[in-house]
Amino acid sequence: MKQYGLPKEFRLLKRADFLPRKERIRRINTKSFTILCAKNRETGPRIGIVASRKVGDAVRRNRIKRLVREFFRLNREKISRQEDIIVIARPKTCVQRYTDIEEELRKLL
To answer: Do 31 and 90 meet the contact criterion of CB atoms below 8 Å apart?
Structure first.
């Protein structure tokens, strides 16, 4: 089962990773997400996911995080840029299906 997971080298885990320098951030806003992209020094893209309490209870926040992680895991090879990608969920995200989330993220990345 571990072979299907998202390895740690592709995730942003530390607070310092989530706070890139402001001069190199690119911001993309949609109805469900705010996406911040910043160049990294690592190999390949890395992802960090933020879902605040405004999004919903713990079950809904964790569901959104799982769906975004799954999208990134399946499409990691298609994202060839060497960037840190921070996905910030908005409250409207919790009522969407995976196919809607996948379609929206595919357009952005």
So the answer is: yes
